[in-house]
Amino acid sequence: MVDELNERQRAVLRLLIEQYVATARPVASDALAAGPQLQVSPATVRNALADLERAGYIVQPHTSAGRIPSDKGYRYFVEHLMGTATLPQAEQRTIDHQFHQVELDVEEATHLAASLLARLVRNAAVVTPPHSTVPRLKHFQLLGLAETRVMLVLVAQDGALTQQLLTFDEAWDQEGLSVVAAEGNRRFHNLTAAELGALELPTDLPPLLVRVRTSLVGLLGRLEEPTVARLYREGLSQLIDQPEFRETDRLKQMLDLLEGDTILLSLVPAVQGRDGVQVIIGDEHSSDQMRNCSVVLARYGLSDTVNGVIGVIGPTRMPYGRAVSSVRYLSDLLTNVLDQIYGVSPRTDA
Amino acid sequence: MVDELNERQRAVLRLLIEQYVATARPVASDALAAGPQLQVSPATVRNALADLERAGYIVQPHTSAGRIPSDKGYRYFVEHLMGTATLPQAEQRTIDHQFHQVELDVEEATHLAASLLARLVRNAAVVTPPHSTVPRLKHFQLLGLAETRVMLVLVAQDGALTQQLLTFDEAWDQEGLSVVAAEGNRRFHNLTAAELGALELPTDLPPLLVRVRTSLVGLLGRLEEPTVARLYREGLSQLIDQPEFRETDRLKQMLDLLEGDTILLSLVPAVQGRDGVQVIIGDEHSSDQMRNCSVVLARYGLSDTVNGVIGVIGPTRMPYGRAVSSVRYLSDLLTNVLDQIYGVSPRTDA
DNA sequence: ATTAGCACTCTCAATGGGAGAGTGCTAATC
DNA sequence: GATTAGCACTCTCCCATTGAGAGTGCTAAT
Asked: Cα dihedral angle (A193, A196, A199, A203), rounded to 10 degrees?
C-alpha cells in the first residue's frame, strides 16, 4: 500500500490521537510540540496538522479549537500506528487469577469476562455465552412432575441445557417415562434439529416418543439461534463518565442500543467468518444508530463447535490499543476455558 | 389512626402529587385551583399548602417556586390517597396475550415480565428468576464427555438446571457412569443440600459416588443463594428521560446501583416474609445510595417453594398507583405461570 | 372561613463584552 | 527548501448584569 503520510505526519497523528483519547479535548499544536517526541516548533506541527486535515484524518470543531481525529484518522491509527500491544504482565496475572476461581463454569466465566473487559477498557462490554452453531442432542430426560405434567430436559453435546414442560392427556409414572426416554436416547443420539426433524420413525413407536421428538426439535432449534436474552452487558456506568455522553441524547441513544437486541446481534456476522479481533469505527457501521461509536470484538471458542462473541462498545474516542489487546486476551482465555471443557476429541458416548 | 389532615388538605396533596408526578415541575397554587376538583381560590389553596408544608408533606425548592411532595408526602399518598387502582382491562388483555406465547418457559416469562413492567411504568424494572429457597434434588445425570471428563447435570425439584464439569483420574465409560448415577439417584433423591451433606454413606459405596455427592451438595447450595447474575434488568433507557436524571451525577448513581448486585439483593428481604406489594420511598431506604429513589416490589411464586422478586425502580417521583397495580398484576401472572408448571401437589416420583 | 390585592423574593433566560485559545499567514532564519 | 518567530484574526466560553415572570405570604376586605 502506498502510504500517503510521511514520517512526521504519522508521528503527529499518533500523538494527537493518543492525547485526544486521553483528554477528550481538541489537541492544539502547542500541546503536541511541547511533548518530548516531537522536536519541532508549534508552527511546524501546524503545517503537519493542516496537511492531515486536508487529507481527512483530523477535523477542527471550530476555528479556534485544536484538532480531533476523524473516523478515517482512527482507522489509520488502528491499522498503522498503534502496533500490536499486549496487556501488561501484571494485569494478565490478575485476570488469570480471577479466572482460576471459576474455571469450569461457563456461565460465570462469560460473565466475569464481560465485567473484566468493561473495567479494563472503561467502556461497555458485551459477551454472548458460547453456543453451538449446530447443536446436537447428547441426552434427554423425562421427569414426571405432577399428574400429567412431565419435564423434558435436554443436554446438548456442547453442554447447553434446556427444558420444556409437557402436558399429556394421561398420567405417566416415572418407570414408563424412563423406558421411553431410554429408547429415545438410543434413536435420537447425536442428531441435529434438522436431522432429528427429518428422521423417519417406525410406525410402531410409542406416541409419547413422537411427541417428545417434536419438542426436542424445537428445543434444539432454539439453541441454534443466537439468543440475546442471556447476553452479558457490563460497564454501562462506565459510559456515563465519558464526556461524549454528557449530553443525555447521545447517552440515551447508546442505552437504547445496548438494551435492544437487534443491533447488537447485527454485529455477530462481522466476526463470524474471520479470526482475530475486529475493529469497527464510527461511520464504518452499517447501522445508523452506531455511527458515532466504535466496537472492538472477537469470536471466541472452538472453531465450528461452541463459540461466542466478546466485545467492547464505546465512543469512537476509545483506547484502541488497549481495547484490542484486552479483547484478544480475554477471548483467548475464554477459548481456553471452553477447550478445557469441551476440547479434544469429543467422545461419542454409546 | 388519627388523621392529621383535613379533607381539603388531603385533596390538595393528592392533586399536587398527581400533577407533580405528571409534569415533574413544582406545582403552584394557581395550577391546583384551576382544576375542576378544587372549587376554591388560589389563596385558599395557598393556605392549605402552607399547612401541608408545615406538617412536612411538601417542600418548596425555593421561594418563588411551587411545591413538590416530600417523601413523607408520597408515603401519605400511597397509604391513604391513591386507593387501590387496577390495571385497565385493555392493558391486562395485551399483557395476557403476550404471556400466552411463552406460557411454559420460565426464563422467558420472567424476562418478558421485566420488559413489560418497565414499559408500563416507564421506569427501570428488575425481576429475579424464580428459585427455591431450599431446593431439593430431583435427578442427576452423569454424561461422559471426553477422556476423563464427565458432566454432572442436576435437576432440582423446582425445575432448576445446573451442571458442573468433573475430571477424574481414570476414564469412565457411559455404561459405568449410568450405573453409578442410578444408584445415586436412588439414594439421594429429594434431599436438600444440607440433608445430602449430612447423609451417612455406607463404606462400600463407589468412590465416584462420594465425589458426586460432594459436587451435588455444592450445586444445590449454589441454587439456594439468590443469584444475581441472571437478574433481568430492563428499561434503563426509560430512566434517562426522567428529568431528575438530567444531571449525569444522579444518573450515574442510579446506573451504578443497578449494575451492582449487592444493593439490589438487599431489597429481597423486604418482601421475603410479607405478601403483597411493598413500596419503599426515598429516605425510607436503609442504603444511602437509594435515598433518592423509590422501589415498588413484590414476591411472586408459590409460597415456600419456588419464588422470585419483581419490582420497579425509579425516582421518588413515580406513578405509584400505576406502579403498584402493574407490579401486582405481573407478579400474580408470574405466580400463575409457576403454578401451572410446578403447582398442585408435586409428585414424589419413585 | 374565604378571597382579592399587592409587595416581595427568587429564578431563569437573554444579553453583551472581554479574556483566552488556537489558528493561518508572512517574513525571517537556518 | 524546510523550519520558525511573530502577529493579526476568529471564535468560544465564561461571567456579570439585567429584567421579566413566577409564585409566594400577608393583610384587609368580604
From this structure: -130
